Description:
Distance between the termini: 78 Å
Strand content: 5-15%
Number of strands: 5
Shape: globular
Order of helices and strands: HHHHHHHHHHHHHHHHHEHEEHEE
Number of helices: 19
Helix content: 55-70%
Radius of gyration: 25 Å
Largest sheet: 5 strands, mixed
Number of domains: 2
Structural class: mainly alpha
Amino acid sequence: MIETIRTNGVKVLLGIIIGFVFLSRVIWPATSIDLGYDQVRDVLVGIEAHQGSAIEYGVPTTGDFLLMPHFYYFTYLTTGISSDPIVTIYAHAIVNLLVLGMFYWICYLFFDKHKLLQSTLSLSLLAFSYQYIWLANAIWNPNIILLPLLLFVLLWYRLHHEDTPQAYVIFYSFTVGVLISIMMGLHATALFAMPVISLVLFFSIPRKFLLVSVTMQALGWVVASSGYLLLEARNNFKNSTNLLDFVRGSSDSYVGFTFAEQISFRIHNYISGWFNIVSSFYFPESYSSYVFLLAGIALIGLFYMKGDRILQRIFLVLLLVYLLVHSGITAQDHPHFMLITSFLPAIGVVNFVVSTLQKSTLQMRAASIAGIILMILSITTNLHVVQRYYMWKYDKDLRVMQQDDYKRIALTLKERGIQNICIDYQLRGYKNVFDFYSYLEGEEVAVGFDCDEKYTGSVFVFQDLSRWIAPDFDETSAVVLIRENNYILYEVD
Length: 493
């Protein structure tokens, strides 16, 4: 009877999670997408490739080198369906749904007992995470990296089993090589981390698989990276040189420090990397003691409590190598730098809670209750941020501009034959978006900044006129083409 009630309760929770996932990953992107400079740039690369422009290098990085072009292959496929960015957004949303499903599968393999309960609880922490929701609502190269990463984990899991047929070992290993190449083309963190992770994992697979696995992974990587390698050979490996300069430059940041100070800073960055993951994905905008508590029990749950030993080994390598890259090369605390390890705390904290709950001692029960409270606080904290995100998308007074606004403005300019639009310099981040939607309408519209002296053409502003319009602007002399709560489009003679 109790088992039936518990099973039905888990199914109800799973139903709630699925409903929220559908709302936040399917409904929201359909009515309101996040579009900015980077997103427009990447979609345009795909559109222009269909018009004959070659895809060469990939997304630029902050390190003055370019990634491999895999993400632009992705936008090429999505823009082949439609140039409207909503299609590329939905492709991201589909990837997000697949990631959650694959994560659930990995959890089911990892947990020793109460698989349905623990997998569902772990899924809830990711499903309600603001960062994971945003991944499905914006076009960006790191946003799809979790799909090849989780598939990478599953394939390495199979390669660790002695009974895996030789033909499968060949296929799995080749696919792992392809996945490493794809991930290296999606973000700089994976570029540095994934080859090292695979190299370390070779030491733990059955010896009889080693040679064929190394060979096939190398072959898969070369095949998937062949376009980039040929381009680099033609360009005298200029981008690879820039990459090496970046790596050398990351060490230069410690120039002037003693050896002991360098070690101290690196250790600090190494340890803080784990807390930053918990803070970014499980307690966003919070630096309270909750972060330290959740980080601690998640580590215990991942590597000390009972779970699948093969997956624990893979998780350990994944985390240690990521933290090594974080401490020595990237040292960035933005969430997209942490994506390849972002799912680990969810598994760890749930394993800790359920494992300690089964203990008979009072201390263990108290620890389990503390873990449950932290999970509830994590979800409510994320939902608070998600609520603000929802307001930012939909509230009539607070929302930012969305694709329908840009389309309406571009169509209005086209209908009135307006060739120039002027926006305040503080809104310069929107120039690229205006260019894009005017491009889709088949119009060439010149977008300028700081048109205080001569208000010719159209002036685009937000609702707070005192902030966005120069004091000498006479609103009565302008024709209002569009007036919304969050922006006004004027035409000035």
